[in-house]
Amino acid sequence: MNITIITVGKLKEKYLKQGIDEYMKRMSAYAKMEIIELPDEKAPETLSETEMLQIKEKEGQRILTKVNPDAHVIALAIEGKMKTSEELADTLDKLATYGKSKITFIIGGSLGLSKEVMKRADEALSFSKMTFPHQLMRLILVEQVYRAYRINRGEPYHK
User: Fold this and answer.
1) What is the chain's mean pLDDT, rounded?
2) pLDDT tens across 66-77, in order?
3) Would the N or C end of the chain have less CB density within 10 A of its end CB?
4) Closest C-alpha to 105, from 130, 133, 80
5) In this structure, which CATH number among 3.40.1280.10, 3.40.50.300, 3.50.50.60, 3.40.50.80 belongs to the domain 2-152?
6) Domain boundaries, the chain
7) What DSSP element (H or E) covers 49?
8) Quick one: pLDDT at residue 3?
9) 131 is in an annotated binding site
10) In the structure, what pLDDT confidence band is assigned to residue 80 with cuts at 50, 70 and 90?
11) What is the pLDDT of residue 131?
């Protein structure tokens, strides 16, 4: 299984990098995982609707150039379907069972994802109705994917 996380924005916080590195190391026993970090668009604090759309479109175009045509794409979006850890594990297990060896998760920038990215996504996943910083979302996602593999192997994990 090849898992790719495409994410917008640079990760600067050392503590987040350390956590992600730890889970990436643990994941190597289960699947190949890579993170593709794309630059975010610089934007002033206050934006018009049009400017917000333009920024999301530019970021979306960058994202779509990195998506493998064969990949099953899961976009992280607040309007997506919420799943338990067990349900995410089941989703990943079913994708593997049906021959989907490439899974791409997409984390947008601070304004979210463009319509084009959402159209390309095979599903939208929400971790909460709350908003999380996209940098923190990387760590949460990597941990949950790792947890899913532990669940699917019947190995212990913290509830």
Assistant:
1) 94
2) 999 999 999 999
3) C
4) 80
5) 3.40.1280.10
6) 2-152
7) helix 49-66
8) 98
9) yes
10) very high
11) 84
Nearest to 138 by CA among 5, 2, 4, 1: 5
Q: Is 132 annotated as a binding residue?
A: yes
- Torsion from C-alpha of 145, 156, 87, 92, nearest 10 degrees: 40
- Structure tokens that stand for 63 in this block: 């994202």
Is 76 annotated as belonging to a binding site? yes
Name residue, tokens 């799943």: 83
Q: Is 105 annotated as a binding residue?
A: no
**153, 26 in Cβ contact below 8 A?**
no
pLDDT of residue 159: 57
Amino acid letter, residue 40: D
- Is 80 assigned a ligand-binding role in the annotation? no
